[in-house]
Amino acid sequence: MGFFLRLAATPFSLDMVSNYKYVVHAHSHVALLGWVYLGLSSFIVYFFVSESKVKKHYSKIFWATQACLIGMLMAFPIQGYALVSITFSTLFLLVSYVFFGFILKHTTPEFKSRKSFLLIKHALFYMVLSSIGPWALGPVMATLGNESVWYKLAIYFYLHFQYNAWFVLAVMGLLVFILEKTQFIIETKSFSKFIFLFHIGIIGTFFLSTLWATSHWTVYLLSNLGSLSLWLGFFYLWKSVKKSFDPFYEALIPQSKFILKFLVFVFILKLTMQTLSGIPFFAELAAANLDVVIGYLHWFFLGFVSLFLLFLASYLKWIRLSKFSLSLYLIAFISTEFLIFYRAGIINFQWDYLPNLNTYLAMASCLFSVAVITILGQTLLIRKNQNQLTSKTG
């Protein structure tokens, strides 16, 4: 869907996107909920819940989630935000609440005292908190309309606590779980400081998402205090896990080491961009140009969260992540980000116009599809060969 959305802006449009906004809604919902939510929740269940509990309880949650996702996938491109799509979206929220309760109740008792589980609990709390945004959309649209400030604030509230809290803490929790398996002790004092500072930071940085609506000095103050708290918090997180991380890192294969270094680079640059948006000059740039926001969101979504999911799936040998497929993915990511930010620069800084920029962007986006199909194909081929080998030797 992302590729067809890019293609719609080129001379080679196949008129496959009859209603652009409707497909955008489908694309964003399936990407966030069908890919990231499903990936993170699958790893959480795999790490923290016993197999017997999965078969007895989680399978029902899993298939209910799939039904909601398929419903949104089919409804959004046809009608946008309307009765059927809103119904499936609402049901998804309710199923996600059930998932939260399932994890709290059925996590293996020995894991409940671990720091990794604390991170997962807080991550899921922010997932639930973010849902206030979608719940507010209905009343806001009915009373104020979808052009009101509150409509956009409700969407940014949802995105902020999804991207910056639920996704980030879930990634950190899964990684800390792996570190805990190395039987190294994670330093408690620094870790507690991280938790405290992260909560302050994530609440404060929400106001970065409101700077387009108000430029009051108190909003800038809260935003920048939030950014400072996040930088300090992640410093203490690194301090708490460094001793555990070093032996884990050294045991990785070279490709995995490269991915982790790339993830750190992407995350640090993400925090930098987030911090800069608390400066009036950059805040005004972001508010005036949607490409800046899209570039930032895709930078984090595709360059950090999605790549981490691929890394962890490869680390657990769930998928086959070859050098070729990884290279395709990274080429797609780097080239699309460059073109999106360059297009923003044409407007904001009067950079030279690049002929056929949208066509290049569509071609680069297509590489994501090729990379994912390659990963899926190679994984299924290996599984098929393993099954054949097992049947012959069995």
Structure, explained:
The chain is 81% helix and 0% strand. The protein has helices spanning 2-7, 20-48, 51-79, 83-106, 115-130, 132-143, 149-181, 188-204, 217-250, 254-276, 280-288, 290-315, 323-348, 357-393. The chain contains 14 helices and no strands. Helix 4 runs antiparallel to helix 5 and helix 5 (115-130) packs antiparallel against helix 7. With 394 residues, the protein is mostly helical.
Outline of this structure?
This protein has 394 residues and is mainly alpha-helical. Helix content is 81%, strand content 0%. Helix 3 packs antiparallel against helix 4, helix 5 runs antiparallel to helix 7 (149-181) and helix 10 (254-276) packs antiparallel against helix 12 (290-315).
Using the CA coordinates, give the radius of gyration. Answer: 21 Å
Distance between the termini: 43 Å
Number of strands: 0
Q: Major β-sheet, in short?
A: none
- Can you give the mean pLDDT? 92
Structural class: mainly alpha
Question: What is the chain-wise order of helices and strands?
Answer: HHHHHHHHHHHHHH
Task: State the helical fraction.
Answer: over 70%
Query: Judging from the principal axes of the Cα atoms, what is the shape?
Result: globular
Could you state the oligomeric state of the chains shown? single chain
Strand content: under 5%
* Alpha plus pi helix count: 14
Low-confidence segments, ≥5 residues, pLDDT <50? none
